[in-house]
Amino acid sequence: MMKLPALLAALALTTTLPAAEPARPRNIVIIYADDLGYGDLGCYGATRVATPNMDRLAREGLRFTSGYATSGTCTPSRFALLSGEYPWRRANTGILPGDAALVLDPARATLPSVLKRAGYITAAVGKWHLGLGAPGVPLDWNRPLAPGPREVGFDYSFIMAATADRVPCVYVENQRVVGLDPQDPLRVDYDKPFPGEPTGVSDRAKLKLDWSHGHNMAVVNGIGRIGYSTGGRAAQWVDEDMADTFTGRAVAFIGREKARPFFLYFAPHDIHVPRVPHPRFVGKTTMGPRGDAIVQLDWEVGEILGALERHGLARDTLVILSSDNGPVIDDGYQDGAVTRLGDHRPAANFRGGKYSRFEAGTRVPFLVRWPARVQPGVSDALVSHVDLLATCAALAGQTLAQNDAPDSPDARAALLGDSPAGRAYVIEHAGKLALREGHWKFIAPAPGVAVQKNTNTETANLAAPQLYDLATDAGETKNLAPAEPARAAAMAAKLALLQQSPRTRP
C-alpha cells in the first residue's frame, strides 16, 4: 500500500499535469475573405475601421505577420488552398469568367475530399470562382451544374459561381440555381450581348452604382457587371442581402451538423466589388462602401463565432481566417473608395496590392484559433495557404499519396504555434513569380506595365531583377540586386529550379 505522503504527492502531480492535447480538431472552419488587406484589420494596425470580431480571433489565437496567399488574385489562390498545388503549374487557373469549367480535378485529392475521408461532413458557402461543369461542354444553367463542389469533396454547397461583378448573378445550391423559374430560362454569354437587354453603357444614367472601368455589360440590381445574361430574373440576387444570405446558410450548416465533425469553407464576398453593404452597415465608417463592407465582413465573422459558441463547439474548433489576395481600392466602380480613403492604409506599410508581386499582393491577414490547442500570441513564421491541405490532413490523421497536394507541406508546428520557424521560403505569384527566402525577397524580371492603369497598382513588372531585404525595408523601396548580384543570382536559380520541379512537398 502506498504511504500517505507518497499518495498525496501522486495526487498533487495528477492534478497539476496539463490535460492531454487533442489529437485533432473536432471541427475545422476556414473563413476566406476577398480582397482584404493586411492593414484593413484593427489587429494589424487599422484605426479608421472597427473589426472587433476579427480582432477577437487574433486575441484568442495566433496572429501571423508573414502569412501568404499564393497569388495576387482570387481564382489561383483558391485553387492552391483547396488543391495543395501552386496554380501556375496548371492551365486555366487565372481569373475565371462566370461560365468557366471546373479547374479542380475531381480525380485528385482536395482539402474537402481528404477531410471527408477522415469523417468530416463538408460544406462550401460563399464565393466559388473555380468553375462549374466539364471542359469543352457548354454550361446549361437550367440543369444540374456538374462537376462542381460536390465532385471535389463538398457534401453541401451554397455558392455564387464566380464573383458579384460577373454574371450570372444567382446562387447555386447543391448543383442547381436557387429560385429559377423554368419559364424564364437563364442564359449567359461572355462574348456578345443579348438583344433588348440593358447594358452599363446603354443604361448608364439609370445605374445605382456607376462603373469606373469595365463592369458595363449586363445590368443586374441596377449595377453593371462583367459578361452578359438574360432570363432567370426570379433567381437574381440582391447585392445588399448577400452577406445575410451567405452567413445564414453557413450558420444553418453549423446548427444542422453540430452533432458530428464538420469542415466549413466559408468564403464571404466582402470586400470585393461591387461593394453594396446592407443598409444597416452603411455609414459605419467615414470611408464609404469599402470601409462599411469591412464592418459587414466583421459582422459575418462574429456570426460564425457566435454559432460555434451557442452549440458548444468553439473550444474544439480550429478556425482559420485569411484573404485570397491583398487590397485594391478602385476595382471598377465609382464607390468613393479612393476619395474617402483618408489616412487608412489597406496595405499597411507594404508596397503594391491585388494583382502585384510586391508584398501587399500576397501578404495577407492570417489568424488561427483553436482554444483547446493553440496558445494565443503573435508568430513571425512563414506560412502559406497552400500548406493547409497537408496540414489539415495530418491533423485529421490522413496520409497523402505521393501525387496528392504536390506543393503542400505539413505545417502543423508553425500553424499551431509550436515552432517559430515555419517555411524556409514562400513563392509569390501574380502573372510571374517572386521568392521570399528568410527576410530576402527576389522578384524575377517580367514584361508588362509597372503600374496597372485602372487600379493604380504597382505590379512589380520590371525588366531588371529586384532584390529586397524585408528585415530593413518591408516597403520594398531599395532594390539591392545591383549591390548583391551573387545573392540575386542564387535566388533566381532557386526560383527557376522550384518552378521546373513537378513538386515541392517533401
Give a structural overview.
This protein is an alpha/beta fold and 506 residues long. It folds into 2 domains: 27-415, Alkaline Phosphatase, subunit A (3-Layer(aba) Sandwich), CATH 3.40.720.10; 425-500, Arylsulfatase, C-terminal domain (2-Layer Sandwich). Helices cover 21% and strands 17% of the residues. It contains 10 helices and 22 strands. The chain has helices at residues 4-16, 52-60, 74-83, 111-117, 242-256, 289-310, 359-362, 388-395, 412-415, 485-500, and strands at residues 27-33, 62-64, 67-68, 121-127, 156-160, 171-173, 176-177, 187-189, 219-220, 223-224, 228-230, 262-267, 317-323, 366-369, 377-379, 383-384, 425-430, 432-437, 440-443, 451-452, 457-458, 466-469. The protein has a 10-stranded mixed beta sheet, sandwiched between helices. α5 packs parallel to α6 (289-310). The longest helix has 22 residues, at 289-310. The chain is globular and about 65 Å long.
In short:
With 506 residues, the chain is of the alpha/beta class.
Strand residues, percent: 15-25%
CATH architecture of the largest domain: 3-Layer(aba) Sandwich
What is the makeup of the main sheet? Answer: 10 strands, mixed
**CATH homology superfamily name of the largest domain:** Alkaline Phosphatase, subunit A
Domain module count:
2
Class derived from helix and strand content: alpha/beta
Can you tell me the residue ranges where pLDDT is under 50 for at least 5 consecutive residues? 1-19
What's the average pLDDT? 95
Strand order of the largest sheet: 7-6-5-4-12-1-13-14-2-15
